Amino acid sequence: MISPNIITNYATRGLKILLRLNQTVNLSSYNYVNTYFSYRSTYTDTLFLGISSSSSISDYKTLTCIIETLSAGLLKLNVNSLIGEYYVYIGAVGSMLGTEKKEFEISSIYLSIN
Fold first, then answer.
1. What global pTM score does this model have?
2. pLDDT tens digits, one per residue of 20-57
3. What is the chain written as a DSSP string?
4. Within a 13 Å sphere around the CA of 78, how many CA atoms are in the beta-carbon half?
5. d(Cα 39, Cα 37) in Å, to the nearest integer?
6. Fewer CB atoms near the end CB (10 Å): N or C, the chain?
7. CA–CA separation, 57 vs 91, rounded Å?
């Protein structure tokens, strides 16, 4: 079962949703971190999957390895050059106008070799 920490930050440049798995994952034997998620918003937002050795980041652009998209679905992050323990981060960055509602649902996170 996934138990992410959820941090929501309302900044002047828009809404930032940042989720982190509570435990590190050993990536040494894997090539990919995969996640499948759905996301609903009135506006176009940047969705991302990334990893970091840090348990506390404030900007998703500082992640060690990152993949970005503008649509929900499967994200497959290549981590074959990394060895050791890392935190997995998932999130969205975009605009927040008025009382816009955003829905973010993660259905799976898994490691694979292909």
1. 0.78
2. 888 899 999 999 999 888 777 666 678 888 999 999 88
3. ---EEEEEEEETTEEEEEEEESS-EE-TT-SEEEEEEEEE-SS--EEEEEEES-S--S-GGG-SEEEEESS-EEEEEE-TT--SEEEEEEEEEE---TT---EEEEEEEEEE--
4. 1
5. 7
6. N
7. 12
